[in-house]
Amino acid sequence: MSDINSLISSCESWITPELESVFDPSMASDVTVKAAMYSLMAGGKRLRPLMMKMTSEMIDCTDISSDVLYYAATLEMIHTYSLIHDDLPAMDNDDLRRGKPTCHKAYGEGFAILAGDLLLNTACERLMYKAMEKPEYAYASYKMANLAGIDGMIGGQSIDLASEDKKIDLDLLFKLQEKKTGALIESAVVTPYYLANKSTVSSVVGDETLSLLKMLAGHIGLAFQIKDDILDVTSSAEVLGKNVGKDQRDEKSTFVTLLGFDAACDYLNKEVEGARKVLSCLNGKGYRTADYETLVDYLVNREK
Predict the structure, then answer these.
(1) H or E element: which one contains 88?
(2) Alpha carbons 36 and 48: distance in angstroms, whole number
(3) Given 71, 130, 164, 202, which is the most exposed site by the fewest CB atoms within 10 A?
(4) Which helix (H) or strand (E) holds 219?
(5) Which residue range forms the structural domain that includes residue 153?
């Protein structure tokens, strides 16, 4: 079993050249492109590309590894656009991301908005291009866009924004986070499976392995978010690379504020145990789950 640092390092080497090439070199001097690349190449754990890589290796689809890489970079572009917009004064109003000034602090609000727009639009172009090039990937392209939209991440952000200065209940918090955080994690976990199986709308109905992968993504997404809420209380900006204490500052409802610190830690352990049970089922079906087991251990123990 690999350790998490070697998995992250391997993913960084795998994904970086693809990310560096998403815009034509002739566009390099454009300020919006510079702002987009500033955030896209700012580092971070690259957990979503890592999960795509791990799923592809778990189900052994090495014959389409270049396509998995293409979709992994596209998903990271969508994730980065969401961070740029999330950090804006009209949203979470943050000035630190991945240990660096946020995009709007480095380039101004106007270019930050355009940079986010550019990353999302280019990601959609890439999804449509791949679906035209390989029609058997149309469903994978559709689902990635769908999980980034109102049925997924944007839907979660909408609930989050509408809930500002309000006390929400735990059920709504679960719905918020399952969309805002969980949807792109689901995309990361399941997309290689869609690609490998040339999935269609009808073919995914009743697919047991796909159901298990979605369950795994659900547990990972909630575990990741609950740990984020815990770290916002216990960690520091120097360690996290982003501001802490902002949930309390903004009077946000989080798993810590709604459940209490100890109960949030218990719920984190419950989600991690749920992920381990799903991995045991996948392992029983012959899939290689060791790297995912390492990731799950990391989720509960991470410090940033």
Answers:
(1) none
(2) 18
(3) 202
(4) helix 208-234
(5) 4-301
Evaluate whether 191 touches 144 at the Cβ level (below 8 Å).
yes
116 alpha-carbon distance from chain centroid = 16
CA-based end-to-end distance of the chain: 22
User: What does pTM read for this prediction?
Assistant: 0.94
**Tell me, what's the pLDDT at 243?**
55
What pLDDT does residue 238 have?
Answer: 57
Q: At 161, which helix (H) or strand (E)?
A: helix 153-162
Which CATH number is 180's domain given? 1.10.600.10
CA atoms within 13 A on the CB side of 136: 9
Report the 10 Å Cβ neighbour count for 43: 12
Identify the band that residue 130 occupies on the pLDDT scale cut at 50, 70 and 90.
Answer: very high
CA-wise closest residue to 280 among 289, 269, 270, 271:
289
**The predicted structure's pLDDT at residue 235:** 62
Number of structural domains the chain divides into: 1
Q: Give the residue among 15, 77, 87 at the shortest CA–CA distance from 40.
A: 77
